[in-house]
């Protein structure tokens, strides 16, 4: 996961820094930015929406080994809080699902595909919104203390994706 996102960092380096992903609409507890990408909602009291909280949990279960705690990077993989300042939602999801390999300059970097890993693929939007909240400084480097309840739509989508329904 690290190497491919490192490539995206380089590829997206010429892109302008993205504006914070402010929510413009909500559907069944899921928030969306003006560009229709999923986004986070952090209330004034620190309560996060369910999907951001779920993304925190999924990120720390599957991604932090390479990308470090809270998306801050490691000696092995880039800081995703920086990458998401430049990457679009579509580029992020394509890289995670398809993986990426870069070879050049005497260095090889590989981000494996997570398209068949349901612990990632079924929660990809959640991971994205968590990292976007971190990237926009809307969420600190700690487990969110308060969260909204899990929406029925999230339960249904999870059951469908995991084959439980």
TrEMBL record:
Q: Which Gene3D superfamilies match?
A: Cytochrome c-like domain
Q: Where is the composition biased (Basic and acidic residues)?
A: 142-158
**Keyword Iron attached:** yes
Q: Where is the signal peptide?
A: 1-18
MF terms per GO, please?
Answer: electron transfer activity; heme binding; metal ion binding
| Pfam families noted in UniProt | Cytochrome_CBB3 (PF13442)
List the InterPro entries hit by this protein, alphabetically: C-typ_cyt_methanol_metab-rel (IPR022411), Cyt_c-like_dom (IPR009056), Cyt_c-like_dom_sf (IPR036909)
Q: What is this protein called in UniProt?
A: C-type cytochrome, methanol metabolism-related
What species is given as this protein's source? Salinarimonas soli
